Amino acid sequence: MKPKIHAFAGGLGLLTICIFWTATVASEVFGSIEHIVLVKGAILRGMVILIPALAVAGASGFALGGKWKSPLVARKKRRMKFIAGNGLLILLPSAFFLATRAQAQNFDEIFVAVQAVEIIAGAVNITLMSLNMRDGIALSKRKTAATQSA
What pLDDT, in 10s, does the model give residues 83-118? Predict the structure, then answer.
């Protein structure tokens, strides 16, 4: 059951971040000021989905791979430290800052700079989470193959 919970929570987290990132880029490139304000507010509200999904994915991943010595598990753990730090230190504060600035329609140079950092940090997390998903799928295939051959 833990692997399914982990896969679902990780997939939901990755999907949510992809939606946030795509909506941000689309609103910045194609949207009006009202659209940007809407997207920034929606991202902040969407944290009620993202934060629990990532917490469940992290906790279940730790429970699943806690004692494993596999190089894949070690890589996933290293990536997760960076993903979590990036999210807590850059992406979450940026979401609050940008939503507040957008609501006030204050799209100055600071807004643009923070938005650029958020887009880059989001792309990094999407990449790292995708790599973790790839490695998780490989681990589950190994475990299934080992179970079937026993």
Answer: 999 999 999 999 999 999 999 999 999 999 999 999
Residue type, 76: K
Sign of CA dihedral 46, 52, 55, 59: negative
Reported for 103-108, long-range contacts at CB under 8 A and 24+ positions apart, including other chains, are 103/37, 103/40, 103/41, 105/33, 105/37, 107/33, 107/36
Structural domains in the chain plus CATH codes = 2-149 (1.20.120)
Tell me the whole-structure pTM to 2 decimals: 0.89
78 φ/ψ angles, rounded to the nearest 5 degrees? -65, -45
3-state secondary structure (DSSP) of residue 108: coil
Determine the Cα angle at 66 with ends 64 and 67, to 5°: 110
